[in-house]
Amino acid sequence: CLDALKHPFLCGPRWRIDPSMDIIRWNLGSTAVRITEEYIYGQQQRIRLAHFVELMEMVNPHSKPKNWLSLLPGRWRLLYCTGRHLGLTLRQPSARVLIGDVHLTVSRASKSRTTFSFTSGIGFTVLIGQEWPHDKIGVAGTLQVNSFFRLTAGRRLYLKEDKAMGESLSSARNAQDSVIEKLSGKKWRKVLPFKELPSSLQVAKLISSDVEVSMSLNEPLSRDVKTAQNVVQEVRTQIPPEMFDLSNIVCGTYVDSRLLVLRGVNGSALLFTRSFVNESHGKV
């Protein structure tokens, strides 16, 4: 070990290594996923995650819809949403519902090459009683949302913040301004695929059709209509509105073999990771 530590490679000058664009993309995605796994909802963490999502969108390797045709189909697990806290908070819920995994399954429709079927699957557990049981055992249920999307080319515009828009989009605007300011420096100029920061970026535009929603609850709550209504309301409170109403998803801004970023109509970004074995890409 002592001989190894005295090796010139370790004791010599720090050689500067220019990473490739693929390595930069991989590191951005890995860092974002690592932050989400910490399950911390502090303001600094949320700003940092929004910052990484913006960077990923800037260096998106597959901006044209033709690249999404092979990468989009699959089963994606929702990791994070920049517009809403996921899971329980300090509030007192009307129904004690624990959200499990939230998946978005995308499959190609047989009629058209650019039409896809989107299925949002939300698994949850309803805890019966006034107190939270220690073992968290309750009544299992699922909520499923189905819709068809047509994939076309689109662009995402970087607009100036308008005071009339309110404070709901201020965090997203601040993240965009932070990214643009950081990418303007000399450090990022060498890795960006364009000389000047664009006012818009190419995206995969998603046009939705009718949305179908269905829910199932196990016994003894399967026949309790009032409890089912409270459960639906609580599920909608805990998950992003884009997963309950798929028509709120307007475009895709980043995709590779392991990560997916979709944007909602309110500007929030949803970060997904692939959660199944794809024959064309291998296990990811």
From TrEMBL:
Pfam (any one): PAP_fibrillin
Domain Plastid lipid-associated protein/fibrillin conserved: 43-217
Gene Ontology terms: cellular component: plastid
Keywords assigned: Plastid, Transit peptide
The keyword Metal-binding belongs to this UniProt entry's keyword annotation: no
Localization per record: Plastid
Domain of life assignment: Eukaryota
PANTHER family given in the database record: PLASTID-LIPID-ASSOCIATED PROTEIN 14, CHLOROPLASTIC-RELATED (PTHR46699:SF6), SERINE/THREONINE-PROTEIN KINASE STN8, CHLOROPLASTIC-RELATED (PTHR46699)
Official protein name in the record: Plastid lipid-associated protein/fibrillin conserved domain-containing protein
